[in-house]
Fold each of these.
Amino acid sequence: MVSVSGRLALLLVAVLVAPSRAPAQTPARGVADRGMLEAAAASAAAGSAAPLTLAGPIDATRYRVGPGDVFSLALYGPLYRETRLVVSSEGVLFSPELGPLPVAGLTLAEVRTQVERRLRTALRGVGIQLQLLVPRTFIIHLTGEVRLRGPLAVTGGSRLSDVLPDSLFTLAASRRRIEVRSLDGSRHVCDLQRFRLTGDEAGDRLLADGDVVQVPVRGERIAAWGAVGRAGELEYGIEDSLGTLLRLAGGLRPEAIAERAL
């Protein structure tokens, strides 16, 4: 018996059950998903051919620069010049004024700082503006309980939620324990279901070049029934609490009686 304080109320039952396994689905529907994603990535890479499809402005403090990113370097004031620059396959940004500047793995904000620092020593009194025109396209790898496994081309600035729509999961797939393995050896567990139900951005993640996305089989489940917004079963998350369950279940309804919660 768990006592929940407050005037509002509900009948809440949280239970653990054995994982359910369902037969893997055929990859037919996933082909369309990949085609749409790769078409979007190709459109972004074209730059001037079509407008970019982004969820919002790129965060310069989080975006990691890499080979293929297209920049505009504008010098203004006593000297006016605008140059389009592309990060080379070796991760170097180059212009006659700038010289070679290794930028791969740096944030966009860090690249701007380094470009301004280097140019101001040579071009005094000249205004400097560096803009990211077209985010690069890079490869990630999808593995595990997805309808289509293998390499996938995505656009810089993409998040896990952008490349894993619900239609790409098999029926047995976990949406709460997705592991993203990066080239630097780091591993991050993402909770897409929590992100999609509550908007908690901690459950999502920006993707980087060469990331491996591993979708495991769904594990134990919990359930909320009674006077909640979304009654039913959910996969059990590794950091779940009663409060998490209530948020995922849509919170308490007005007629809930907290004192009678189980």
Amino acid sequence: MGRSIVILCDGDFPKTEYPRYLMRMADFIICCDGALVKFLRNSKSIFGEERLPDLVIGDMDTLSASMQKKYCDIIIKEEEQDHNDQTKAVRWAMNNIPDLEHIYILGATGGRPEHTIGNAGLLMEYTRMFDMEQSGIAVESVSDHGTMFAATDTLSLDCGEGRQISIFSPDNSLRICSEGLEWPTDNVVFDNWWKATLNRAAQDTVTLRFSHKSLVLIMMN
């Protein structure tokens, strides 16, 4: 059975049970930079006792020097600025966690809106950077408001009738024929972010058929 890890970013710390459950069940927990402070503040309410994450990674621009010194044994400082801390954590996990099956990213939304948009878009980028289709590793960004994940080809979602679904893509040549959505996406041209948002599942299973392999971000609330 594969391992699951949680990457905690420095956005809104989850208050609802599902993302907190993911933390309790994770085989390994990575905090991105200043997210360590939020983790320490909330660890007792989640785990029933105070505990540390397994690793802290980032350029340490949002973690005080005193905290860096105190927790130096679990800190990996990566100062390169070509990638953000979320990506550094995903990259480390892909290279160092054996039998990795699932990466759950928490705290990637909230705070500065450009961080939220950038972190969401990176879910699509990871499919190329880390060849997720070949590896079979699933990456989801989970918040109190829903779950986001990338797709690259036709798929079926066992989401339950009434689930809110939004679809985003940077590929304006892509066409997605849908079954099971309240408003079919067959004629949608993905030339702006809003074009296939705020949809809803009209049945328990939704099927999205891609005209060709491409990058898509799916958000379910």
Amino acid sequence: MHFVDGLRAFAMFAVLLCHSYLYAGINTLVVHFGAHAVNAASLFGFGNVGVNVFLLLSGFCLYWPFVKRGSRPEPNLAEYLFRRCRRILP
């Protein structure tokens, strides 16, 4: 599902633009559409939406292998804790 990775990249780019806007001190970025002018810099302040979308899509990508047809069964809590402890503890 390459489109999900594309959406994650778009969300990451939104966060990058928001951080650039906040820390660079850019107050105006005028874009002209014929006789109209729009201040596009105010749109960069919505980077928190990109964070939420990125986290939502990342969670979807992590859970997708469990819900695909013919995939392995969902692990229970005991199996998860056993594998986690085996990997972390020396």
